[in-house]
Amino acid sequence: MKAQAVRLHGAGDLRLDTFELPEIGDDEILVKVISDSVCMSTYKCAILGTEHKRVHPDVAEHPAIMGHEFAGIIEKVGKNHQDKFKPGMRFAQQPALNYKGTMWSPGYSYEFFGGDATYCIIPAEVMELNCLMEYKGKAFFEASLAEPMSCCIGAFHACYHTKMGDYHHEMGIKEGGSLALLAGVGPMGLGALAYALCCDRRPGNIVVTDINDERLQRAHRLFDHKAKEAGIRLDIVNTKDLPDAAATLKEINGGKGFDDVFCFAPVGAVLELSSAILGRDGCLNFFAGPTDKQFSAKMNFYDVHYNSTHVMGTTGGNTDDLIESLKLTEAGRLDPAVMVTHIGGLDCAAETTLNLPKIPGGKKLIYTHIHMPLTAIDDFRSKAAEDARFGVLADLCEANHGLWSAEAEEYLLKNWD
Q1: DSSP summary character for residue 164
Q2: pTM (2 d.p.)
Q3: Phi and psi of 416, rounded to 5°?
Q4: Any bridge partners for residue 209, and if so which?
Q5: Cα distances (Å, whole numbers) of residue 231 to 196, 202, 210, 225
Q6: Which segments of 235-348 does DSSP mark as H helices, in order?
Q7: Which of 175, 257, 267, 383 is the most buried (most CB within 10 A)?
Q8: How far is residue 402 CA from its own chain's centroid?
Q9: What is the greatest pairwise CA distance in the chain?
Q10: Which residues, listed in sequence order, are joined to residue 180 by a DSSP beta bridge?
């Protein structure tokens, strides 16, 4: 059958291709992709090409479909999986396969498997690893965003703490402790904040920093009331002009260092600030993946030795993390829409990916069966004069505190080409 997809042909070479999908085998599943959210990791893959660890060396001959944060509908099931999966089922998937020691993943490594596509084929290893699951939620975008949210959840679970004289690692952020999210008002930082306010192992207080006033104000608008409802103190701070940011953040934290610190930007100054505000037994999670293989920054190793501070990094979540994200979302405790600021069709996905660092805001959400320029949710109202459909989308988002919603998605899918 014919499919369209944004595919990687080489470093910086993304193309919207029309091509023939082969017939599925007994151990494969054909799916119709509905939504895919664009990840900074996809940008890194696109600009690096075969220099990226997940991209196969013959990508020029066998281009890889981009996008790994996707959801949709099962169309056809090979006979080996017909007892569990049926046509018409909605699906979510965990792309962090780690299959038999390889780094292959949808959105990086497969010729016929990825999210920036109208249709794709899910290979046998995905079902073997239980990384394909039925999705029973309302909106496809929530299933797409379950993947980036699972990265945040996995990062929280991977943090650890110790006690003096005891070498046992207690996993997870410190319950009732202090949490700092530095450069934390981008999409992943806001996802982490949303999870911190609703998870079962919650901090007692949270400090979020950035240097962009507009994004900081958006974080205030979205989370101040949620923090009060959760009984968690939340401080959102612009560190741009602070003469001593570390001292200020510690002062906010009662004069002490933080139990858990997440660094969401691969910037030396942010990472060094992260190190400087660690308290005793403080855990620093370097969440942001750099493209520079020689990236480094200073860390206080006196504190590593005498105050048991430690650093670790996570990339991706696992299937349990994704299931936790879906369950929290379905229960209404977690709203991944806080990540999303832009909506577009498959026709804008390549340009969006290649220019991702230059486009302000949070997650860019792609609907693969529509044609629509990438459009900020905040711009819907101003576009209503030229296209009345944007006015309806504006009404629906404004009714949801300015956020994308299941109702907005339903209207989009019914009314766009």
Answers
A1: T
A2: 0.91
A3: -105, 150
A4: 237
A5: 12, 10, 23, 10
A6: 245-252, 268-276, 301-306, 319-330
A7: 257
A8: 20
A9: 68
A10: 207, 261
Helix (H, G, I), strand (E, B), or coil: what is residue 280? Answer: strand
**Which residues 6+ apart lie within 8 Å of 45 measured at CB?**
8, 52, 54, 55, 66, 107, 108
Pair 303, 58: CB distance under 8 Å: no
pLDDT tens-digit readout, 240-269: 999 999 999 999 999 999 999 999 999 999
Closest among 292, 298, 238, 255 to 274, alpha carbons compared? 298
CB 173 within 8 A of CB 203: yes
Classify burial at 75, counting beta carbons within 10 Å of its beta carbon; exposed 0-12, middle 13-18, buried 19 or more.
middle
Q: Which amino acid is at 43?
A: Y
Please report where in the chains the tokens 């998605």 appear, as a residue: 409
Closest CA to 131 of 117, 113, 118: 113
Nearest-CA neighbor of 31 among 114, 141, 104, 137?
Answer: 114
- Name the token pair of 279: 């308290």
Question: What single string gives the DSSP state of each residue in 222-267?
Answer: HHHHHHHHHT-EEEEEE-TT-TTHHHHHHHHTTTS-EEEEEE-S--
377 token code pair: 């949710």
pLDDT in tens, 347-362: 999 999 999 999 999 9
- 409 pLDDT band, cuts 50/70/90, is very high
Residue 178, token pair as written in the block? 């202090």
b (16+ CB within 10 A) / e for 306-338: eebbbbeebebbbbebbbbbbebbeeeebbbbb
Give the SS3 label for residue 54: coil
What six digits make up the tokens of 51? 């220099």
Three-state secondary structure call for residue 130: coil
CA distance 411 to 416: 8
Torsion angles phi and psi, residue 368, rounded to 5: -80, -10
